[in-house]
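Duplicate of #3305? Posting structure anyway:
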């Protein structure tokens, strides 16, 4: 496996995207960093991680052969890879908070940021960024965030964990190649946080409402059943309050 280990960079996703422009890289090439000065999260948020403690990395997948209108499948594959890995570490009560936050009980332990390079209406390459909280113990002002060390009560070897994650990412891309799309989508749905439970949501205008998550559409929208209708929402359109 081609592995580029950095001490620090602005964002491993940015680093890998730039490298891709000038260099021929191996499929599943990985860039890790001990520290990111401008780590990026979903919804334009920042990804903050204590230097040296956690896994911060980006994986390159050339031509994933996933149609653009089904690109949410990338989130499905990567979320399931992380779950499969963490199950081997006996992390309890794992779930996926749509679209791709990985939770143990109510605590977020990993986040995913996938950036695709599109050429001629096809995904030319996909940069899969993962932040996984491993050995950080204190998350000041973030009561709903935790780490493997906090949950399992022991320090975890980051290199071994990274190897396991990459081989599970490869495993799930192979499953996709074997036409397991339906199975993968239903497996993702089976891990969906608060599925089929009445939950509170917030709209961008701060309005709150109650609804029940029924699943995720092919386009990656969250399907929510409300009092009088069922509606599909995208990431910018609502937040789950929990
Ligand atoms: C989120 O949950 O908001 C997504 C977080 C993704 C963080 C990772 S860390 C490695 C990669 N580089 C980045 O700048 N972001 C992703």
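Output from current build:
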């Amino acid at each position: 496996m081609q592995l580029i280990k950095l001490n620090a960079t602005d964002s491993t996703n940015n680093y890998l995207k730039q490298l891709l422009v000038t260099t021929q890289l191996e499929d599943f090439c990985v860039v890790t960093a001990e520290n990111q000065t401008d780590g990026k999260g979903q919804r334009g948020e920042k990804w903050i991680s204590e230097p040296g403690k956690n896994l911060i990395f980006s994986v390159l997948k050339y031509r994933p052969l996933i149609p653009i209108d089904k690109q949410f499948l990338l989130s499905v594959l990567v979320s399931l890879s992380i779950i499969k890995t963490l199950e081997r570490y006996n992390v309890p009560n794992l779930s996926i908070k749509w679209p791709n936050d990985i939770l143990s009980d109510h605590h977020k332990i990993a986040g995913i940021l996938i950036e695709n390079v599109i050429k001629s209406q096809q995904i030319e390459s996909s940069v899969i960024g993962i932040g996984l909280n491993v050995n950080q113990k204190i998350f000041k002002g973030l009561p709903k965030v935790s780490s493997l060390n906090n949950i399992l009560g022991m320090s975890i070897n980051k290199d071994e964990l990274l190897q396991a994650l990459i081989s599970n990412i490869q495993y799930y891309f192979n499953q996709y190649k074997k036409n397991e799309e339906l199975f993968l989508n239903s497996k993702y749905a089976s891990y969906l946080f608060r599925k089929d439970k009445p939950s509170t949501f917030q709209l961008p205008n701060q309005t709150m409402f109650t609804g029940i998550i029924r699943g995720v559409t092919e386009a990656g929208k969250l399907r929510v059943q409300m009092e009088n209708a069922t509606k599909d929402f995208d990431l910018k359109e609502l937040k789950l309050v929990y």
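Confirmed duplicate; merging threads. The chain has a mean pLDDT of 97. The longest strand covers residues 107-119.
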